Amino acid sequence: xxxxxxxxxxxxxxxxxxxxxxxxxxxxxxxxxxxxxxxxxxxxxxxxxxxxxxxxxxxxxxxxxxxxxxxxxxxxxxxxxxxxxxxxxxxxxxxxxxxxxxxxxxxxxxxxxxxxxxxxxxxxxxxxxxxxxxxxxxxxxxxxxxxxxxxxxxxxxxxxxxxxxxxxxxxxxxxxxxxxxxxxxxxxxxxxxxxxxxxxxxxxxxxxxxxxxxxxxxxxxxxxxxxxxxxxxxxxxxxxxxxxxxxxxxxxxxxxxxxxxxxxxxxxxxxxxxxxxxxxxxxxxxxxxxxxxxxxxxxxxxxxxxxxxxxxxxxxxxxxxxxxxxxxxxxxxxxxxxxxxxxxxxxxxxxxxxxxxxxxxxxxxxxxxxxxxxxxxxxxxxxxxxxxxxxxxxxxxxxxxxxxxxxxxxxxxxxxxxxxxxxxxxxxxxxxxxxxxxxxxxxxxxxxxxxxxxxxxxxxxxxxxxxxxxxxxxxxxxxxxxxxxxxxxxxxxxxxxxxxxxxxxxxxxxxxxxxxxxxxxxxxxxxxxxxxxxxxxxxxxxxxxxxxxxxxxxxxxxxxxxxxxxxxxxxxxxxxxxxxxxxxxxxxxxxxxxxxxxxxxxxxxxxxxxxxxxxxxxxxxxxxxxxxxxxxxxxxxxxxxxxxxxxxxxxxxxxxxxxxxxxxxxxxxxxxxxxxxxxxxxxxxxxxxxxxxxxxxxxxxxxxxxxxxxxxxxxxxx
Amino acid sequence: xxxxxxxxxxxxxxxxxxxxxxxxxxxxxxxxxxxxxxxxxxxxxxxxxxxxxxxxxxxxxxxxxxxxxxxxxxxxxxxxxxxxxxxxxxxxxxxxxxxxxxxxxxxxxxxxxxxxxxxxxxxxxxxxxxxxxxxxxxxxxxxxxxxxxxxxxxxxxxxxxxxxxxxxxxxxxxxxxxxxxxxxxxxxxxxxxxxxxxxxxxxxxxxxxxxxxxxxxxxxxxxxxxxxxxxxxxxxxxxxxxxxxxxxxxxxxxxxxxxxxxxxxxxxxxxxxxxxxxxxxxxxxxxxxxxxxxxxxxxxxxxxxxxxxxxxxxxxxxxxxxxxxxxxxxxxxxxxxxxxxxxxxxxxxxxxxxxxxxxxxxxxxxxxxxxxxxxxxxxxxxxxxxxxxxxxxxxxxxxxxxxxxxxxxxxxxxxxxxxxxxxxxxxxxxxxxxxxxxxxxxxxxxxxxxxxxxxxxxxxxxxxxxxxxxxxxxxxxxxxxxxxxxxxxxxxxxxxxxxxxxxxxxxxxxxxxxxxxxxxxxxxxxxxxxxxxxxxxxxxxxxxxxxxxxxxxxxxxxxxxxxxxxxxxxxxxxxxxxxxxxxxxxxxxxxxxxxxxxxxxxxxxxxxxxxxxxxxxxxxxxxxxxxxxxxxxxxxxxxxxxxxxxxxxxxxxxxxxxxxxxxxxxxxxxxxxxxxxxxxxxxxxxxxxxxxxxxxxxxxxxxxxxxxxxxxxxxxxx
Lengths: 718, 718
Fold this sequence. Notes:
Shape of chain A: globular
Largest interface: A-B, 111 and 110 residues
Strand order of the largest sheet of chain A: 20-19-18-15-14-13-21
Strand content of chain A: 15-25%
Oligomer: homodimer
Largest sheet of chain A: 7 strands, parallel
Helix content of chain A: 10-25%
């Protein structure tokens, strides 16, 4: 043994030259306006963009401002070593980094070490999350995307090279109070476990524009059907058709909005693993049931996880396409193979979509390690288990979206896993975690990575918590109660029933605004829900705070960072500052420019920190100076295609305002062929204290759902 | 983009045959008695055994009982796929798995998914720990070791193959209450990210024998110097030579045992990164200081972390050997290169060892990701950052042990990271975590993996906690207060000073017993501290308990497992059942056979669960029927080489008893050349109620430290 060791030693003493290994810089090639690609080594056949299969939205990209390649290209370097790519991207001293997908606790990514790995969220931001998108943006105004479907390790301003151009100061911990366990690092470094990889750079000039470019490169954001922005209730797992009908009646009785109902596993004859067939005892006549719901204007969304029960009608035909391992005893179809995908979609179409079902909730495509297929699983396509895990959620989104697209019907659903390239797929991510605070942080972060997130409401310990959660979910991509286990209803907490109804009504009233904001997501790439850091005029508050714990509890004297993650932007004009259980007041940071209270129009502040005490009934919402907010009367269902809707357009503050109001049929993909309209809303303040309002006329041959228009000046006067 | 996608699809439809991939079984070759090796694919040049460089202790191996290859060999299968090895080992229905290194919360490893990755312990058993040893034992009586220095993913009875020979029952969660989120799995599966790997099988017939084989294969367990089993105090970081002398005086005044003192970073002129030079203001005359301490019988242990400060005298000479990245601004010497190792050892020798320093505490060789070199770091030997991380702690143990071995002096130190192959290196693992309960679980687990662990005491919220922690650390491989940050002394909590002294005195009194038990670790491979599950007659209590949380908090209805991890064996005869803060009584599970109270000799029970209420002053300790426990009078320092020591030998219970008492000089490696003795102690119960006692005579030319012998019958009578 010792002899072997010495032989080994002799071999090892052929020293590797450590410093020369980073000598190479990649070659950049512009592939779309403001987007550059570099190919390092020999990239794999399969990657995130190929999995998502989206097509860049060039029209949107061409409209964005241009300044040129945003990085010192020669400072981007890489190294190929032991079959892996090590990549190094420079950071400036005061640069901050955002993104890397659906983080729940951190906004600032500089200083973090993560492995981007599709997984359920385990309570710590370590890269294992439902959408670990390998894309980041810098406040210096650019974005970086690494197109790999491998588990990717990132040291984001956390590793320090010995030959670093901007080295940290060496300090003696014995005597120097400035010693830090996190010495300054001047680079993002990544390790990609493959022989090559494609890297993309997105120019700004601002962070928001880099994000918009990323979304547009991935096809532009999704545009949900109008009904997708209404209220949705997911009923208890074993509800029968009659139970569901009664639930819908109860919503009517309570005059509570309801656009779609989600059926949980019990709609299927067997579930976990799934048959993808209706259970005939609970649902004796599915076509009649679906039709009846639809006649009431209620769409249906069905829970599935894509793992096939031996009793499923497609079990046999899918046999050549299963992976080597099962998930909860279900076979895992290799949906990257078109024939497998077709068989599965065929079942969904025949049994559900063709009788009128409107969408799916795709569960357990994320993890966790105990539930999903293991990393040594093998799939018939030859795609590795790891790559399959990074992209399975995207494939299922694509498969289901494709079915509805064939029928020229839009869908809007839920999914537990996503990744880069999927911005255009109409799915909202959810999970089993339930920290209200962290749910809001996730909402902030979703906007950096081309994903949508819902802080769904399940049940609460108190009526206060119920109301606070309802208030924030109504300012999110999907206003939902998920009562699969609890059976809660919006009115389950009678003390706050009125306030809960008020917030759901407000959600409905804001539909013209939210629908327009989603259209901007689609056409311009602007995320409808996003962190304050993407808002112009928002000052970076990035100071480190001293940790008061002593060395026994905090042996490396780690500092605490202050991040703003409890308020966010909802569309162009609204700043949302939720309250959490136990809070009666809170601080709100208003970006530069005048801001006004949404409910009263009263002046709130300008580039400052204010304290608000909104009472239980309100979630604090602030509006930009001059902003127009198009609203409608609250209603129980979203407007249908062709239905005229009266608008109430609110104008806030003292500035003149304009707003681009989007319109289309709200149901089909005809907007992709030009069947849509942007209507310009305008308010000019006149010297006599009055205002001049205008709306651009409807174009001939374009959709026009606008009925009477009322203009409301939110003056702050009672 | 879509075109590309379809091209890709066409390529992918060359289906991989999923089921045939596991067709291969490895070829087994016996490499030592009861130990088989298989070579799969092309293993890497560098692995755990090469890093540790230990030599199998054949003499010990030859003494173990033999039955033959312990597994159905044809059921062990592997697959080479995408440059990785997937390995599958069968599990029987009622089989339980233990090991995988230093886990802090779990004992049963079946059902777990982990990545074995050297790291600090982050509060969850996920494979990231200080010693993630890729070795497990089965209660069916065999052990498996995977000799890789890569990060290794393990699904231990957690993954389910579609073609599994013992598949789980498919259940419908909608209707079947027996549905489980953890379906039955009949195999351990591992993914090793390298083109080949060596696998070792260790036969039993019992688990303990499989563990012994593993330890003997790695050179046998370490044998500390006698003083290493005494009490040790680590003083405050910036203590001066005078402060240390005063501390030693205070120990004398309190008549508190003290064999070695640990100096924390402040002994060095600069630390974090380190100069490896004495600070001349705090230590103006190191040789005199070390000599003075030694004259009092006090050994010194010095803190280091192996990262080189620019101000170290070896900074320049080590330059050709640094890795690409720094740790806390310190250069990382590639100690796998003999010349680098020699330069570093040269500095330790010249400045410290040659003036009489006795050992080291090697810090921060574990992680965490923010502190250590990143995975893309490059080292001049060409060994990858990942492999370096898995083995750096082992290399530093080897380097320092080697220095002392050259001088024929034993050492005993502390280290933050270890791995397989290092059983024979005289280091105890410690960390920054501080859950007393989890520290005891770690102590239980250490025995499965050939490592030692100390539940060090730092400070406590209450005197009760202080005492309870002191009681358990005195029944561990290193009886230590680590006051580097707190400055605590044994008598810091005056309410319990008497009890704390009593337990330290007991530790000293038990030195003949503990020293013999460590000799058995060395010669027989028997871990001195180990889980109850390794004890014959201990019944498996493995029932699953229903989790009372509802589906909202526990959506997948995860069960809770009952594991025994709060009591453990200390050597052959003692069962330790620590109490934790807030407990006044506790349950103890006694294995089959009669057990007696250590303090009184009273009968305690037989194969049953008892409840004990020991008061504050005692940690419950139970002794086997017939057991002999060799003790000495409490003293402040360990006996020196050549010093005769009177023995008190306790006999418990009703059975006749024998015990193998080990003796050598306690200081050098001469025992490796035969300079040791096993003395047989014997008690026979006579019919007249008396006993006949005997001790085998000392052999001529062998060490003999035994003075007068007193035999004490622990009858349980007052």
